[in-house]
Amino acid sequence: MLGALLVMASIAIVLGAVLGFAAIKFRVEGNPLVDKIDAVLPQTQCGQCGYPGCKPYATAIAEGAADINKCPPGGEEGIHKLADLLGMEFKPFGGETLPKPKAVAIIDESTCIGCTLCIQACPVDAIVGAAKQMHTIIAAECTGCELCLAPCPVDCISMEPIPDSVSNWKWKYPVYALTVSK
């Protein structure tokens, strides 16, 4: 009987040591909710929400310091996803934040002087070119954040709305909005 107690005590000590080591080794840094919110955001780092990037905006949402309806690139689809994640009601865009139509930057290559300021400003590396050479936009990578507009000294960049087509059209309402509750 004493032998069984010693075996059980030693197993408990070993398991306690393993759990203690695991708690230190696999400690969660920060708030996991922030990471989930950040994953829903479009990662444009554009600052249109009033925060310097998506992670600070996600942190503010998780702390309750910001509303979920401040991200123009995420659109209403992003607001719906955030509302679902947080168990909140959908909030339409409000205040100074307004939804913008999807757009892509276009560079007038005949005017471009190759200063590379737009390349440095682009958070998603959608602009290619070299110093003293014309630049161009990779349209499939451009998020329409407009961060490349301000640094351009010759104003050769413009935003062109993306027309709806079969390849980029999305259903504007989530499926759950169409279900009829009983």
TrEMBL record:
Keywords: 4Fe-4S, Cell inner membrane, Cell membrane, Electron transport, Iron, Iron-sulfur, Membrane, Metal-binding, Repeat, Translocase, Transport. InterPro entries: 4Fe-4S_dom, 4Fe4S_Fe-S-bd, 4Fe4S_Fe_S_CS, Elect_transpt_cplx_RnfB/RsxB, RnfB/RsxB_Proteobac, RnfB_subfamily. Residues 103-132, 133-162 form the 4Fe-4S ferredoxin-type domain. Transmembrane segments: none annotated. GO terms for cellular component: plasma membrane. It holds the Pfam family Fer4_21. Residues 1-23 are annotated as: Hydrophobic. Residues 29-88 form the 4Fe-4S domain. The complex is composed of six subunits: RnfA, RnfB, RnfC, RnfD, RnfE and RnfG. Belongs to the 4Fe4S bacterial-type ferredoxin family. RnfB subfamily. Part of a membrane-bound complex that couples electron transfer with translocation of ions across the membrane. This is Ion-translocating oxidoreductase complex subunit B.
